[in-house]
Design brief:
Layout (H helix, E strand, L loop, with lengths): L3 H18 L3 H13 L5 H15 L2 H8 L10 E5 L9 H10 L2 E5 L5 H14 L7 E3 L8 E5 L2 H11 L4 E4 L3 E5 L6 H12 L9 E7 L5 H6 L4 H5 L2 H16 L4 E3 L4 E4 L9 E7 L2 H10 L4 E5 L29 H6 L2
Parallel strand pairs: 1-2, 1-4, 2-3, 4-5, 6-7, 6-11, 7-10, 9-10
Antiparallel strand pairs: 8-9
Helix pairs in contact: 1-3, 1-4, 1-5, 1-6, 2-6
Length: 340
């Protein structure tokens, strides 16, 4: 049996390998391979995702401190993981949790993101060959003793039906929001642009909704995010979404703001289409705090400055930089695994 220390050391070495070889031939091949299978996975986005994994998840000190907070499971289980595929290697954190906890991973990567997950886990086995008996890529999860599944609200109903008889974590649609008070600096608003545009807004940690005070002037916001024009204008899928959503707003005569690559539309909905960010006015901080509380089960993270006084909010630019203990849907995956 591979010891916890060996498991942690192997993942640490994987992180070091990624950092030291991002510009080298093998990882460049991973990136090109991922991009060839999914046009949303641009070279820059895959590069950013790999670097985030290495620095946020696989830092030696953070990884060891995190892992040792949980007791080792009494029995090794086969854990089936249905992975999402919306952003590059988004399923890696679940794989990390299962393997560091000492269980056996039955991985079912999304069709849009199977390339990068396979490369990462194959490299892990190359670093620590004893992991070979703990990692399996499968099409069906019949042999699993427990499940972790990520998908839409619709697929969650399917997961709940088929996985209900065994321990499970089933995740549904979530998105992220930002709360502005009008005092934000140009630098903070530019960082908010990162929260909106990184991975083309496809992640649950991407900001899709702004809460702004009544009378808010979006001019400064649009000026601050102007540097992201290349993100929208130079990617054909994103730009096609922009033109389509713009035409819908125009045909329906819906009032909106438009800077040529991002549409702002007033709406109470939290989730917005690609190239659109919804916004909603508020009168007082207490009002917006109440709205956030009533929709908490649909929100992954809240971006705001400290002046807003919102609990558990993250700074502008930090939405897509989760730490190793920032669990999806705020469900402690490691605690779940340690109790199997």
């Amino acid at each position: 049996m591979i010891s916890r220390n060996q498991r942690i050391n192997a993942f640490t070495k994987l992180g070091q390998y990624i950092i030291n070889n991002l510009q080298e031939e093998e990882i460049e091949e991973w990136i090109a391979d991922a991009n060839s299978k999914n046009n949303w996975f641009t070279v820059q986005n895959v590069h950013n995702s790999l670097l985030a994994i290495a620095t946020q998840y696989l830092n030696a000190d953070s990884l060891r401190q995190w892992a040792t907070e949980y007791s080792e499971p009494q029995n090794i289980k086969k854990v089936g993981v249905v992975m999402a595929g919306n952003i590059p290697a988004v399923g890696f954190h679940d794989a990390l949790c299962v393997l560091v906890s000492g269980h056996i991973l039955l991985a079912k990567p999304a069709s849009d993101d199977y390339v990068l997950i396979r490369h990462l886990l194959n490299k892990l086995v190359e670093i620590e060959p004893q992991f070979a008996g703990s990692i399996y890529f499968v099409d069906r999860l019949n042999d699993a003793d427990a499940y972790i599944a990520t998908g839409s609200d619709n697929t969650a109903r399917y997961f709940e039906y088929y996985f209900s008889k065994k321990p499970n974590i089933i995740r549904k649609n979530r998105t992220s929001v930002a709360v502005l008070n009008g005092s934000e600096s140009t630098e903070e608003l530019a960082a908010l642009g990162e929260d909106i545009f990184q991975y083309y807004g496809l992640g649950c940690r991407n900001v899709s909704k702004l809460f702004v005070p009544v009378g808010y002037d979006f001019t400064k916001f649009y000026e601050a995010i102007d540097s992201f024009a290349s993100v929208g204008l130079h990617h054909h899928k994103y730009f096609n979404n922009y033109e389509y959503n713009k035409s819908i707003l125009l045909v329906n005569r819906v009032m909106h703001f438009d800077n040529g690559f991002l549409l702002l539309n007033e709406s109470e909905s939290l989730v917005s289409p690609i190239s659109v960010v919804h916004f909603e006015y508020y009168n007082t901080p207490e009002e917006v705090a109440t709205k956030l509380a009533t929709t908490a089960e649909k929100i992954q993270c809240v971006v705001a400055n400290e002046e807003m006084g919102l609990n558990n909010s993250v700074a502008f630019g930090a939405a897509q930089k989760p730490g190793i203990s920032d669990y999806a849907d705020n469900i402690d995956t490691m605690a779940f695994l340690s109790q199997l």
